[in-house]
Amino acid sequence: MSHEALNPIHPSVLPHLDPVFVKLYNEHVANTPSGPIDLALLRTKYSVLYSYGTGPAPDCARIYDAQVAGHNGELIPVRVYEPDSPGPWPVHIDFHGGGWGLGDLDTESHICKHICVKANVCVIDVAYRLVPEHAFPIGIQDSFAALQHIHAKGAVEFKIDPTRISLGGVSAGGNIALICAHLARDASILLRMVAVGTPTIDDISKYASAAEAPWPSMQEMEHAPTLNWGRLKWFDNLKWQSIASEEPEREVQMKALKWYANALQAPDFTQLPKTVIYTAGCDPLRDEGEAYAKKLIEGGNEVIQKRFAGVPHPFMHMDDCLWQAKEFIDLTADHIRDTLHR
């Protein structure tokens, strides 16, 4: 299977893309030779995959690494970004993207820095464990445990105000943040806001091809650059390969899945925090993200939803060149600042 992220832009998508992105992609990516997808190699390169478009980020007052309790109490890494102001600070908890099997504390470091400085909040980035070494939904389980730890102990350990918490993330990290909002509500943890970009929502293992998916964006953007149908299925297979094939372990792991494979199947969409969902016009995941926003609205929640036209799934990493990425970062920081400092 080829490394789909390194192909020239498909003619079906080209008319929909911002010419600035097309030029950026063609200069840095389109002529890179394709090769087999190697998970270990991709992990070493993932956090710099879009660095050709990433702009400089502001300096935080302090950045350091720590640990919090993950699922079943096992310690997982976090990175803490402190603003240049006296604490206790509001806190924004970030969950990085990477399709459940990629990503680390460097993946969204530039976004974390921008939010820390522009929103004047402490940002804690969570390095949840990955599939396939650990069974899905380990990313959700670790991340919610991290939220519980920060809520209960963060005032002492991180000098944060546990009554002013927001969550965020991109792609799989956006999915985690949205699902954690349901879990936090059920655990009586007050969240002020969730702000996500291009989240994964649906369970695409149900579809053998893009044509079978109920989302027009899956067909329209089947061959989109940076994330297409083939890459989505590769990530999805990685996720399901993490589940044991033998009983009784398989039964235990499948039971832990609950409704998490498809966030639209959450049992209760009421009394959730203010939610900001940003989608990308040239992303196969566009329509399912917007369908999730509609479910939140139907549940009576405050929702801000915006589609950034002309850009693909990971556009927010390209803030050096794309106005859409700059606006994504600035709007996200503005919403966090206005909500957590209100």
TrEMBL record:
One of its GO terms (molecular function) is hydrolase activity. This is Alpha/beta hydrolase fold-3 domain-containing protein. Residues 94-316 form the Alpha/beta hydrolase fold-3 domain. GO terms for biological process: antibiotic biosynthetic process; monocarboxylic acid biosynthetic process. It comes from the Eukaryota. Transmembrane segments: none annotated. It comes from Penicillium frequentans. InterPro entries: AB_hydrolase_3, AB_hydrolase_fold, Carboxylest/Gibb_receptor.
